[in-house]
Every structure is written in C-alpha cells, then in structure tokens.
Amino acid sequence: MNATLLIVDDESDLIDILSRYFKTKDFIVHSATNVKEAMKILSNKNIDIILSDVDMPGISGYDFLKTLRNLPKHKNIPFILMSGKKISEIDILEGYDKGSDDYIIKPFSYHILYAKIKAILKNKTYTGKSKIKIGKVLIDEESKEVFEGKKEIKLARKEFELLVFLYKNKNRVLTKEHLLNSIWNNNYVSPHTIETHISNLRKKIKSLDKKIISVSGYGYKLKNL
Fold it and tell me: The domain 3-128: what is its CATH number?
C-alpha cells in the first residue's frame, strides 16, 4: 500500500506479528515498545498512521494520543487505539473523544485491522484544502484549525471531520448510520459515538449550538445559514 505505519505496544511478540503481516501488505513499518521511543521515531520519520496500545508502562496510549493532538506537526496523523483488557463503552468513547480515528479490541482479526487502516488512509484527505465560513466560525481544512471569532477552538480529529461533513451537507438530514459510514468508515462503532461528538461540537462552538439540529427518529443536520 506504500504507507508508513508506526506500531506502539509493550508486547514485543505482537509487534513482530503485526510488522510481518503489514510488510506483506507493502507497508513500511516502524515500531516502539513505549511512547518515548515512539516520539523519537516521529521526530525522524514521516508516519502515515499510528497503531497504539492503550495500556503501557509509563505513558498510556490515551496520553500519547492527547499529546500528539496538541502538536501541530503530528496532530493530523490518523491514530488507532487497541486494548487487550475488558473495556466499557465509556472507555471506547473516551478514545474517540481524545481524537482517535478508531478503536480495536484484542484479540482481533488482522484482516479487519488492515481493512480499517485502508479505509482511514483512503479517507485521510477527503476534506480538501480550503476555508469554510459558518457565521462567526472559520474552518481551515488545510491546517485543521477552527476559530470562533478570534478564539481558536480545539477539536478532536473526528469532531473536525464531522463538522466539515455537516457543513458540506448543510440543510440535509443525515442519519447516524450515514455519519458512521462516512466519518468512521465502518459499522463497528456505537451510535452513541455520534451523540457524543455532536454534543462536543455544540459545547465547544457556542454559536453553532442551535444550528446543529437533532431530527427525532432520523439524525442530524446543520441548519442552512
């Protein structure tokens, strides 16, 4: 596929297995057993997508993700979290809230993981490179920055993509299924994920609170401005 993957996990055996698998799919693979090693790789290599364990000694996958989303150079790198422990829906939603593009639970099918990564990379540049104005809100698709007046609004990656998608389909009712397929690329994500991201957008961007409309029994739409 000619993409560069960074795998971060404290289980060396899993790293070896995943590395061999993705090399057969024409990926360039780098790996690290902790976040400190991963940051060194990121400082020297161009990474297209990151696959990181949640539970690692020292810095967790959640904190690794949060750190990257606050670094201009790395904040737009697609990121998949993986976890081997029994997790709740709240844990998964926390991952998405921090900016994860997807979440996969161990043990998992390598083929499904590969399909997820392909879909994310295929969709990586769908937003194009332009600026969008919604009332007081300015969205820069190239830099992935959002401003409300002069105030910069920090959005997680999927919140940003959801906002742009709503704008490009403004005044059109979008079902949860449509949003899940378009933004998350699969049907393995709970519909509650959409509710959480919509709620976050309303809270973070005050002027859009009443412009993002819930249509009972159907989904959501961005009111024509």
Answer: 3.40.50.2300
